[in-house]
Sequence to fold (270 residues):
Amino acid sequence: MKRERSPGFKLFLTGFIAFLLAVPLAAVYLLSWDRQEQSKTAQESIAAGWGGPQTIIGPVLVIPYTSETVETVTQNGKDVTRAVQTVRELYLSPEQNDLTTEIKPKKLKRSIYESVLFEAANDGKATFAFPADFDRYGIKRAQLKLESAELRFGISDSRGLQASSKVSIDGVVTQLQPGKGLNATQNSGFFAFVNWDGTKPLTVKYDYAIRGNKNLTLVPRAASPNGPSIQNGLVPVSMAISCPKSAMCVKTVLTRSMKSAIWLWVRPWL
Fold:
């Protein structure tokens, strides 16, 4: 008489068969994970020294101004109120900002892995002016330190900035300084000192190129045609995206090029 197997043995046999079936699945997963890690390492090696994903913001005119605040402190057991002078920064977006960006992709390979790098040449013109209703913001012209104003450009990875970069203010080429970008680029970028009296519009022409890989994010900054140009920029009035015949593009705010290897984002909401 054949002895019937116990439920415990059947459970063990089922688990053992499931384990044998899981071994090849685990091997495939580990192989896929290893290839992904090797691809990531190879792409980082290819892009080393070239520049990472890039975000471009600006230009923005930053003007220091003095502000008086009232604070209460305790001295000798008594509360004393006093006025304190502090220096703050006013961020002025351009009334108009015309920017043309030309992207030149470049595909590099290492073994079976490849990475697409790019060089983006940015050529633009911006005009700054105080809004007609500037006084409503509670800042008087006498508080502004216009002689200490700075023109700031935000670049997320300033290692990719090329030496041929040039900025002219009212037709005069100015010297560029590293650092002091904008918050959206973690203060990475470059700036130039500006001596402006504020009586006439300030015209800025800029021409700079950056290198990077994977992503290029453009954050246009400009003022409303009918409102103030302080703080946030607004959506561009017009935008055109064109691509060479060798690239695949989608004509929307999100454009793919170089066989989906480079993403170009236009983000006007930062």
Summary: The CA atoms of residues 74 and 80 lie 6 Å apart. The first helix runs from residue 7 to 47. The mean pLDDT is 76.
